[in-house]
């Protein structure tokens, strides 16, 4: 393993512990009001795992499972509270713009649609997951991967 413990812990603090703490902070208000939506941000890396990205991939897998468990735990309380997540593949951002073209090609070659996702596509999925219309889906991980993963 090529990751140092301090780096591993930092990634888990940001990607997992922060989600736990945010949920812990907002769920009491949601329970009181009888309504709420939580949409966590995972990654396709959390479903597939990426070599060389042990801390990141495993932390995003933890986000997916944290979402599943919380979704189930809050599903049967008679409240309109849902907890879901989204797992995007590579999305066209400034960070991706700064990558060498061959690195971007390596990532998009894994995507059947053959391209990066767009921010507005990810945002639309999040908006749906956070909407009143998404009232019968909880503990689910929405895939935004251009077909890279279909489970």
From TrEMBL:
<dbReference type="Pfam" id="PF13561">
    <property type="entry name" value="adh_short_C2"/>
</dbReference>
<dbReference type="InterPro" id="IPR020904">
    <property type="entry name" value="Sc_DH/Rdtase_CS"/>
</dbReference>
<dbReference type="InterPro" id="IPR002347">
    <property type="entry name" value="SDR_fam"/>
</dbReference>
<keyword id="KW-0560">Oxidoreductase</keyword>
<comment type="similarity">
    <text>Belongs to the short-chain dehydrogenases/reductases (SDR) family.</text>
</comment>
<dbReference type="GO" id="GO:0016491">
    <property type="term" value="F:oxidoreductase activity"/>
</dbReference>
<protein>
    <submittedName>
        <fullName>LRA5 protein</fullName>
    </submittedName>
</protein>
<dbReference type="InterPro" id="IPR036291">
    <property type="entry name" value="NAD(P)-bd_dom_sf"/>
</dbReference>
